[in-house]
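Appendix B, Record 12. Input sequence as logged:
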Amino acid sequence: MNYLFKAVLTEKGWQENVRITVDGSGTITKICPDAAGGNAEYIHGYALPGFQNAHSHAFQYAMCGLAECFSPGNTPGNFWSWRDAMYRVALAISPEQMENIAAMLYAEMLKNGYTSVAEFHYVHHDVSGKPYGNLSEMGERLVAAAERAGIRITLLPVFYCKGGFGKAANIMQRRFISASYQDYLQLFDASSVSVKYYRNASIGAAAHSLRAVEERDLIAASLLSAVYPFHLHISEQQQEIEDCIAYYGQRPVEWLYNHVEVNENFHLIHATHLNDDEVKAVASSKAHVVLCPSTEGNLGDGRFRLKDFRNRKGRWSIGSDSQIGLGYLEELRILDYAQRIHSHRRDTFVTGTSGNSGFNALEESWFGGKKAMGTPIADTFFEVGAPLDAVVFDANWPLLATASEKNRCNTLVYSAQQRHILGTMTDGKWVVKDGIHFSEEEINRLFVRSLHEINMR
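Logged structural output:
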């Protein structure tokens, strides 16, 4: 199969009239810039590498909009009250409903240009808290949903055993719990089998947070980072930091770096409230941070010190987390604007060698996202031997049609909306075209049925 794109984004900028040839499995076999049409399908669009979603809780898509009503003076409108609402949703979902919710979510991600997702998965057991006969029943449903939607998935079964620092898990958390590290390893092994059922699925490891895992078990689990990407919520809320200091006598990131050999396979989610020493430690260790700006804003988490982190060559990626926002470019904008409001400057993504904010944001977040998936890091966005995963923007969109080559990425990052996406490809095939997902009718129908069954909206 041959595709001829009006232009393709590369590490060195835009190349015009690029013909990309793929084999039957969607792997790129040839890339020819400045090519003629020949027998290729002409695509009047600008192709970017498919976006990487480095942090997702699929089931939370079912609760979008359900935690925004408050009783003034009675219900605290903070992260912890939101968490109670999330627990109620987690307790209501069956395996079939999980699959239908995730399939809908993943189809929506594809419409927004995501082609890969790292699923931080902790709803493991049945509604009574008893493990399923297949320990990875729920994880397997997520893999099945990814296959139905046509998105790549890195399944991250999450180790979760406590209700807080020094506290036993509470009854609302019963579906999440692995009582010991050995129990978690059994879950991890079962999840490793589940990903074999879909060629575009892989496995990674995760611990929920310092507050949710015993000290010795977290140290043991972190050793999985020698082989797999290892994801961990860290330093999201001020109360979390205060509780950690009260329990361990150290801040979360401080404790982590004093007890664990952190390496480049670590992906620290949120890392919202870092001091100078912690910013330096994370950057120096080559660990990544995973930023979820729409969720961090919605939950009132706070602001990550991105400029300081980037000045130390820190590595980062983007996630959708609670699914309150699914626009990748919107996440980049929210991230940037939070920095600008604080610093009163507009050069968040400027480096010592490049002042092209849009390109720098796309490049850094894409490479960080690929690392979060645990997939091989390419030297460039599109290369021979790699699958053709792309998000294509409509070249007829007037702002993009009139943008100079220098300003194309900036026009996209700071102006584009979902409606400007011509389509999304994975493995060299259209999974979304002209705003329509290839299995949209069925996915929508089953999602609506499942939400009516849950009956919480």
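The two ends are 45 Å apart (CA to CA).
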